Amino acid sequence: MYGKISVLFLLISLLVFPQNDIRIISSDASALIFEYTPDYSDTSIVTFNSKEFRRISFSGGTNLSEFNFGAPLLEKNIINVGVPNEFGTTFEILSTGYKEISGQILPIPEIIKEGDFPSFRYNTNEEYFSSVFNEDLITFGEYGIARGIKVQSFVISPVQFNASLNSIRLYTRFLIRINFSGGGIFAKTPADNFLSGVLLNFDVAKHWVEERPERLSKIAT
Predict the structure, then answer these.
(1) 124 φ, ψ to 5°?
(2) pTM of this prediction?
(3) Could you tell me if 147 and 189 are in contact, meaning their C-beta atoms sit under 8 angstroms apart?
(4) What is the pLDDT of residues 155-193, one digit of tens each?
């Protein structure tokens, strides 16, 4: 139940914040190929406790480690794809592009109370200083069912940080292929358009909707 609720929540949030930085290259029952070009909205320098940090934000970015205080604040992007089955889906990165800027990235802040108001405390932990360019660029997220469609989320990590090199790597382009396992059954009646524009491959996924069993009618004798 948790997976179903959380995936549906993500889908609804994406209805409010549509992703205009994704372009579909091709989409069919065997694979989805799309291009993702993160739209960086903030790379400014901020100062806390006489230390300078880079604040890195991009459209649709979210912090999935908000309680890991002091670790690098590396925003992620979550995308949702309809799949024919819970298992068997794979992905591959066909190509990427990136740029590097110098600086120490902003750490994840701890929210503390100062008087009657909350305040952010920026400290760095051991994980911060051991950071290198080795984080997976894409991983599997949650799986669930929304409006009868099986949904697999993927977590993309366009921001990387290397503390020892004093360098931040910003990926500017991803070309990603998601491969679907066989055996998906096309429903007689496709899903409604509620998830249109939310699932990257809704044009195909709407046909993988789970059909409800037909009700048996009583026959008078």
Answers:
(1) -115, 145
(2) 0.85
(3) no
(4) 999 999 999 999 999 999 999 999 998 766 666 676 667
